[in-house]
Amino acid sequence: MNLFGGYKASKLKPQLKMAVTRFQIAANKKSALSKQQIREIATLLAEKPNPKEEKARIKAESLIRDDNTVEAYEILQLTCDLLAERINLITHSKECPPDLVSSVSTLIWASTMVDIPELIEVRKQFRCKYGKQFDDDAIMNVGGVINERVAAKLSVQPPSAYLVQTYLEKIADEHQVKWTPKVPLTAESMADPTAAPIGYSVPVGGGSGLNTTSYFPSSNGGNKNVYVNANHPSAPPLSPSFVIPPAPSKPSDGKLKSANVSVKDSSVTGPDDDVDDNEEIDIYVPGVPRNPPGNSHRRVKSNGEDGDDDDNGNNDGGSSQINGSGGGEGGEESYEYLAARFAMLQR
Question: Is the peptide bond before 49 cis (omega within 30 degrees of 0)?
Answer without folding.
Answer: yes
